[in-house]
Amino acid sequence: MAEKYFTVSWDQLHRDSKALAWRLMDHRPFAGIVAITRGGLIPAAIIARELECRLVETVSVVTYDEEDRGQPQVVKPPAAAGDGAGWLVIDDLVDTGTTARVVRALLPKAHLATVYAKPAGKPLVETFVTEVSQDTWILFPWDTEAQFIPPIARGTGR
Ligand SMILES: O=P(O)(O)OC[C@H]1O[C@H](OP(=O)(O)OP(=O)(O)O)[C@H](O)[C@@H]1O
Ligand SMILES: Nc1nc2[nH]cnc2c(=O)[nH]1
Ligand SMILES: [Mg+2]
């Protein structure tokens, strides 16, 4: 289990994805976007909207089962992006860089961008928005829901 959690709301994810779109403006034009499923799908949709890019492709790499890391498996290679030249690849985050390394091997000439980055994975992407420490687990809105929390005064024994 991670030591710290960084909880991202839908609003925050939208703002951070738009901030990523701003950073990518100077790198246009892109032939299309490749979203790394599943986590890259929603950021890719927001960025596709902001950059007015209608062509969205996917690559599916499975690396984690919840917080447990396994061997990365390419479940679906990108169909239309060739060697990646002129294409933008989007993921929600880069952590150890395992997923990014696999995608980089498939699309060596693409521009890789993530919304969030941890130090170990940061060198593998060209563009990102927010860095969090390596021992932080990012909780995305699709993995969480609001729940009742007891008042502080209840259950502390004081
Ligand atoms: O840099 P890494 O250590 O490879 O970690 C980053 C990857 O891990 C998560 O995907 P996950 O494998 O959990 O699949 P998902 O996107 O389908 O949830 C996340 O969405 C990134 O793709
Ligand atoms: N949700 C989530 N998935 C990850 N996969 C690798 N690192 C992370 C993380 O910090 N949060
Ligand atoms: Mg992922």
Automatic annotation (TrEMBL):
Q: Which principal EC class is assigned to this enzyme?
A: transferase
Query: From what superkingdom does this record's organism come?
Result: Bacteria
Q: Where is the Phosphoribosyltransferase domain?
A: 9-148
Residues annotated as binding 5-phospho-alpha-D-ribose 1-diphosphate are: R38, G39, D91, D92, L93, V94, D95, T96, G97, T98, T99
User: What EC number is given for this enzyme?
Assistant: 2.4.2.22
Mind listing the UniProt keywords for this protein, alphabetically? Cell membrane, Glycosyltransferase, Magnesium, Membrane, Metal-binding, Purine salvage, Transferase
Q: Which residues bind GMP?
A: D95, T96, G97, T98, T99, W137, I138
Molecular-function GO terms, alphabetical:
xanthine phosphoribosyltransferase activity
InterPro entries in UniProt: PRTase-like (IPR029057), PRTase_dom (IPR000836), Xanthine_Guanine_PRibTrfase (IPR023747)
Residue positions annotated to bind Mg(2+) are: D92
The residues that hold guanine are D95, I138
Q: Which residues bind xanthine?
A: D95, I138
**Bilayer topology term:** Peripheral membrane protein
Cross-referenced Gene3D superfamilies: 3.40.50.2020
Q: What functional role does this protein have?
A: Purine salvage pathway enzyme that catalyzes the transfer of the ribosyl-5-phosphate group from 5-phospho-alpha-D-ribose 1-diphosphate (PRPP) to the N9 position of the 6-oxopurines guanine and xanthine to form the corresponding ribonucleotides GMP (guanosine 5'-monophosphate) and XMP (xanthosine 5'-monophosphate), with the release of PPi. To a lesser extent, also acts on hypoxanthine.
What does the subunit section of this Swiss-Prot or TrEMBL entry state? Answer: Homotetramer.
For this chain, the family text in UniProt reads:
Belongs to the purine/pyrimidine phosphoribosyltransferase family. XGPT subfamily.
Could you identify this protein by its name? Xanthine-guanine phosphoribosyltransferase
